[in-house]
Design a protein that fits this description.
Layout lengths: L5 E3 L7 E3 L4 H12 L4 H10 L5 H7 L14 H9 L7 E3 L2 E3 L7 E3 L6 E3 L9 H14 L31
Antiparallel strand pairs: 1-2, 3-6, 4-5
Length: 171
Amino acid sequence: HPHIGYKKDLSHKNKLVIDFNVDNIVKKIFDMYANGIGSKLLVEYLNNNHYLSPSGYRKTGIVQDKNNANYLWNATTICNMLKNEVYIGNTVQNKVSVVSYKVKKLRKVEKENYIRVNNTHKAIIDKDIFEKVQLIHKERSKKVVKQYDYILRGLIYCKHCRLANADSIKS
């Protein structure tokens, strides 16, 4: 599915064009975040003004609906949008790779190894605003530092929930 703010071009199936029904929502999200409004307040604003989430818009084709509380925005969606280069006209691929064709596990690829093609489609967001948002997001994001690195991490499983988490086991 194309990202919110874009739709597939009818004449070229692999090309994105701006969806003018919802591009103003994307612009508003970036502008509000660049002006100091956090993702939680953005979620409140979008939900209070009855804007449907990207999945809701995709399923219904409606931008705003006062009666539909099934398709609410969340902070994860906002944060993923704010980090996505598709809004400045770039296409980024190879973010994850398969460990092996036999094992269906995926692993994240380092940012230096991404395949990035610039200016593949029209941008909704100006690059200056996008860079400002990236700086703000980097300042606000919290780095999770593990206090201990256990030797048996990933080898010990909880009997009740089958969760592989050595951090929850006290020695």
